[in-house]
Amino acid sequence: QAQLVESGGGLVQPGGSLRLSCAASGFSFDYYAIAWVRQAPGKEREKVSCISSSDTRTYYPDSVKGRFTISRDNAKNTVYLQMNSLKPEDTAVYYCAGLGSRWCDTDEYIYWGLGTQVTVSS
After folding, report:
1. Is the pLDDT of residue 111 over 80?
2. CA dist., res. 27 & res. 32, Å (int)
3. For residue range 79-89, what is the model confidence (pLDDT) as tens digits?
4. DSSP assignments along the chain, one per residue
5. Looking at residues 35-63, what average pLDDT do you find?
6. Distance of alpha carbon 64 from alpha carbon 84, whole angstroms
7. Are residues 47 and 36 in contact, defined by beta-carbon separation less than 8 angstroms?
């Protein structure tokens, strides 16, 4: 079955960097836009990045713009999220999710990973 597996999370100091990876299997990876979505206690779920199936378009909210960069390697069925200048408010579980579209123009999520914890603390 379709599967998304996140990795690369952990504990990092404020101002530090992490690179998350999302390895996909069991579906036509290059047919779907892929998003990173985070969930923190007491906060609404937030889409922090998205990349179209052909990586011609990307999306970032103001909260991470200029600090996070999404990329994908369709040959490896993998999406990455480079996170720089991390802040304590970035602390959350980060999920990789497949959208029901080639484009980042929908909030419909078809596939979900189990998430990876990112903790930003001194």
Report:
1. yes
2. 9
3. 999 999 999 99
4. --EEEEE--EEE-TT--EEEEEEEESS-GGGS-EEEEEE-TTS--EEEEEE-TTSS-EE--TTTTTTEEEEEEGGGTEEEEEE-S--GGG-EEEEEEEESSSSS----EEEE---EEEEE--
5. 95
6. 9
7. yes
Burial class (CB in 10 A: 0-12, 13-18, 19+), 34: buried
Residue 51 pLDDT greater than 90, yes or no: yes
Sheet of strand 3-7: strand arrangement: 3-7, 18-25, 78-83, 68-73
pLDDT higher than threshold 90 for residue 122: yes
Q: What is the mean pLDDT of residues 32-37?
A: 97
Dihedral sign for Cα atoms in the order 20, 36, 67, 58: positive
